Amino acid sequence: PWMSHSGLHPALWPCWTAPAPTPEIPMELIFVIDSSESVGPENFEIIKDFVTALVDRVTVGRNATRIGLVLYSLEVRLEFGLNRYTTQQDVKQAIRKMVYMGEGTYTGTAIRKTTQEGFFGARTGVRKVAIVLTDGQADKREAIKLDIAVREAHAANIEMYAIGIVNTSDPTQVEFLRELNLIASDPDREHMYLIDDFNTLPASFLTDYHHQCNAKLPEKGPESDPIGSDTLS
């Protein structure tokens, strides 16, 4: 089975409760959202619900958490930067207005834009966090390679979370998992979430929002490498 009662991939078991983050500690937070053809317009609406639910869990403001968003397909767009909105309501309205793209998956380009433009003007000494949500491998035609873009982001002290919607029947799944592993900051067990259905996305990630999880791939076969800090370091 690929589903737990909360919708998380069993690779994220067992979990234990971690201390809840203090919402008053400011962050510079950017969502990096896959809007490719495989996502589909209905699932794109679910993603909007999920992101707005996360926005509800932080204190938004000039002296609190500031939020930006990068939307990508073949085109990569900074929907809004950190300086644009100063209230939860304004951020959520902007998310609701996002238009589905429906083409390829230029994840590397999106991460580079996040590093170079999304976090432009970030406050000194404030934690920088990016949440990358994607349902498939980066496009092989992409000029900006994923590993290089990720290296740049990590070098810029951006804490990267990877949320992957994993299709169990997809033969490219192993490579996709490696890409998610590459994106996620170390330790990966705290920064990588695998979900097998868009419909479980809001519940599963929010339910386990304060959990740290041990993540391992199946023990046998080509997928036997652990999803951990050693896999793609």
UniProtKB/TrEMBL annotation:
Gene3D superfamilies registered for this protein in UniProt: von Willebrand factor, type A domain
Keywords, in A-Z order: Cell adhesion, Collagen, Extracellular matrix, Repeat, Secreted, Signal
GO biological process terms, semicolon-separated: cell adhesion
One Pfam family matching this protein: VWA
Coiled coil stretches, renumbered: none
Family annotation (PROSITE patterns): VWFA
Protein's UniProt keywords contain RNA-binding: no
Domain of life of the source: Eukaryota
Domain VWFA, chain residue ranges per copy: 28-209
The name this protein goes by in its record: VWFA domain-containing protein
Source organism: Crocodylus porosus (Saltwater crocodile)
